[in-house]
Predict the 3D structure of the following.
Amino acid sequence: MMRPSFRAEVVVPCCRCALVSTLGILLWAALASGAWGAWQDDIGYTQLQDFLGSNLPDGSGVPIALVEADTGGRYYPNTNDIEFGSSSDPLQADVTFIDGSGGQAAGISGHATSQAESFFGNATSVAPAANGVTVYEAEDYLNEILNLAATNSTVPAPQEFRVQNFSWIKTGWSENEDREALRRFDYAIDTNNITALVALSNASSPLPALLSHSYNSLAIGCADGAHSSGLTNVSRYGVGRSKPDLVAPRGSTSSATSSTSSAATFLHSADFVQGTDAAQSETMKSILMAGATKAEFPTWSQLDADGQWHPLDDTYGAGELNLYNSYLIAMGGQAVGNTTTPTPAASHGWDYQTVQPGALNKLLYDFVVPTGSVAAELSIVLAWNAETSAPFHTGDPVVADLDLELVDSLGMPVDLDPEDSLVEGLSQSDVDNVEHLYVSNLPAGTYTLGVSSDDLARDFGLSWRTSTLFLAPSADFDADGDLDAVDFLTWQQGYGTLLGATLAMGDGDGDGDVDADDLAIFNAGFGSSPPPLAGFSIAAPEPASAVLAAAGLFAFFLSRRPPRDVANAYHC
């Protein structure tokens, strides 16, 4: 049976209007989102740039796709935009555009250009060296790539992309049509291992069925909460799941989505991700979500207005995109869970494997908060894909029921929310394909995480980050009872360490890195004024004088950059 293609009536609304067209596109709003650099600062990209310098990932080598709704038949970016040229590209190369739908000649879409800029633009994205992109028109993508126009048993076309961006929504189809499109979309993500980012509609309005009701993508909203949100409602397609999955500090859901796509491309290009299971769609989804911050949202809660528990907040999902945190998670590497002896888990890390059903097959991990420290945050996200198969016009997705459990050294459930006695150490949703544990101010001790399945064997991605702090910060790095030039030299030698730093390496606040925060602790203990520069000589300084002079100069330059609050970083 052949399916006719749908026709798109395209409307470009203002960025704060609900979309009511058959196929609506979400207008990028540069004025509303502020300067380009602001969002890069907010998500921690600028801080990574300061630390990593020329070693910063840049999106190079990652195959990506931009799927755009058309405006008057136009869906193609302006390929002559300076953002896509070689003059400011890290690789000194132009972006190579491939027209996947064959309609480039219809003209340029301003919306497509804006999304391309925030997705892979040279100065306006975090993946400036992503120089190979395939562009599809949304109608063509649905009909010819997902193969909605073919027989019900025709599978979607194979795709080799690692990241795909969908800054548009579609409404107006029947639930049967929505369900078939969603089944095909989730099949494509799972089969081709794609990180797919999809937009919600702007302003408060019902969740659009396409594509935000999919299981295997990430639905993206705005950090200001001005987007559609709530629970999925397409019958026989996982009713009651929370959306969005994640929010980004941009002025519209279009730009929030393409900016998150840029962050995913950045992570995929890191050398410790390529060729590993961190690149699996489930793992990358969990890495992005576990890195998200919540300090920006005082109302963030896993309880909805009716007191019902969900893994995610109904407005902000897992929280605000934070590339710094997600980078550290990916960098932390894989810790493979064990069914007998818990696997030691570092402060940041991930796992990808298959869990078998049954209590005896629970996979275990140990998290340690050192004596004299507190975990300001422990964020853990488990993600797994729904499975669909042909024929695509019938049947429900197959979704395993996986759970997370966190207990202390005595085997007692960890109190995740002191104000809610119902939330005790479990993330246990019957409908979602994500689970999320989030704990604040976790005292010193050993905590065991369990990943289990109630019904089916399923591969999963698991990610975590632990933000520890010393209860008593100290810059006495050599533990000799005073703060002197040796302590400064220790800090200087350790500066730029991102993970696993200790007090002896220059980590004064206990957060596992060595940065300006630790120098501020040294300065506060050493004295309010830099050490005197008397006796400093470039040619032949006295050793102690030279070190102290360097300390003063280094402190002066770094004092101009405000220290980072680990638990409350990167506000909108």
